[in-house]
Amino acid sequence: MTHSPPCSPCIGNAPLLVNSQCQLGEGACWDVQRQRVIWLDINTCRLHSCHPDGSGHSSTPLPRQTSYAALTRSGDYLLVSASQLSIMDPQSGTITDVMPFETDNPITRSNDARVDSQGSLWLSSMGRNADPGAGSLYRLHQRKLTCLRQGMSIPNAICFSADGRYAYFTDTPTGWIMRWTLGDDGFPQRLASGEFIAPTPWSAQNRHGGLPDGAVVDSEGCLWVALWGAGRVVRLSPEGEEIAHVSLPVRHVSCPLLGGPAGQTLYITTAREGLIAPAPGDGGLYRIELSDYLKGATGLSPPPLDLVPSGHG
Predict the structure, then answer these.
(1) CA-based Rg of the chain, rounded to a whole angstrom?
(2) What integer best gives the mean pLDDT of the chain?
(3) What single string gives the DSSP state of each residue in 10-61?
(4) Predicted pLDDT at 159
């Protein structure tokens, strides 16, 4: 099968910032309280962080495979891990388990996650061997975990429109990014029967040899999507059309982040997984400044994760 070359303008080439050599770098997020970039190496069970310029890099071992660290209202991290959701105190490193996660399904682990505009966490699972149909998509809202969708293989690209009306996600092998219309409660809209209305196909991302992985939304309603296997992060218009891209010198790009003090720095995690002869930069954290390109646009800053049920202090 042949693929047409990228047709959008290239904003620039992202250079290596931190040579973290992650086997599977994922879950990039911006810790606004500590002004640090946070990311995970799922396969080696480590939490990485650094200052915006890449200095002060640290790598902390974790007790299990972890795919995301969500900043909570209390300033701790909620670790989204295989079989468990846990609270980590970033200062002491103390980890306290708070909620089991698919403990009845030993073939799965956690995968993508993102906090929505209401301070609730969407998270996904997938088979440890990318088992077809083993993955699911959930929403953690006020300490209650609701399954939104099952039968997926590699749920990814979870992100939300600036106005909170839409959720986006993909089942990576399909190449399609889907869009879900949300209700006032932040859940997908429902049928009269109570079932969630099905999401709709929004943008095909398998045309240039890569597959959609992680994604974020900027303040202009555009999606930034990492294309696994293609060495690119693409910017999609609110209509789903590719309008620009950033190139990387590595193949497996996994998760973008629009962060930094001004919200105009694109950080990108990458992976060494599946490469026969990894290059030194594979699995590193990459960065490119986008202030000249974005002008007044910035990355969105979701509220901290709220784990306290309504009516509690």
Answers:
(1) 18
(2) 94
(3) EEEEPPEEE----SBEEEEEEETTTTEEEEEETTTTEEEEE-TTS-S-EEEE
(4) 98
Q: CA-CA distances (angstroms) from residue 68 to 60, 121, 295?
A: 14, 11, 29
Q: Which run of H or of E encompasses 7?
A: none
- Measure the CA angle with vertex 159, ends 142 and 80; round to 5°: 50
Lay out the sheet containing 46-50: strands in order across: 25-31, 36-41, 46-50, 58-61
The pairs formed by 64-68 with CB atoms below 8 angstroms and a separation of 24 or more are: 65/109, 65/110, 66/27, 66/40, 66/42, 66/110, 67/26, 67/27, 67/40, 67/42, 67/109, 67/110, 67/111, 67/112, 67/113, 68/26, 68/27, 68/29, 68/40, 68/110, 68/112, 68/113, 68/114, 68/123
- Tens-place pLDDT, residues 229-246: 999 999 999 999 999 999
Residue 76 — very low, low, confident or very high, per pLDDT cuts 50/70/90? very high
- The answer to whether the beta carbons of residues 248 and 255 sit under 8 Å apart is no
Strand order, beta sheet including 83-88: 66-71, 77-81, 83-88, 95-101
Pairing of strands 66-71, 108-115: unpaired
Q: Are 68 and 112 in contact (CB under 8 A)?
A: yes
The one-letter amino acid at 304: P
SS3 180: strand
Pairing of strands 242-247, 10-13: parallel
Eight-class DSSP state of 164: S
Domains assigned to the chain:
10-294 (2.120.10.30)
**The tokens 């972890």 sit on which residue?**
66
Q: Calculate the alpha carbon distances from 80 to 5, 64, 121, 140, 252 in Å.
A: 36, 10, 10, 11, 22
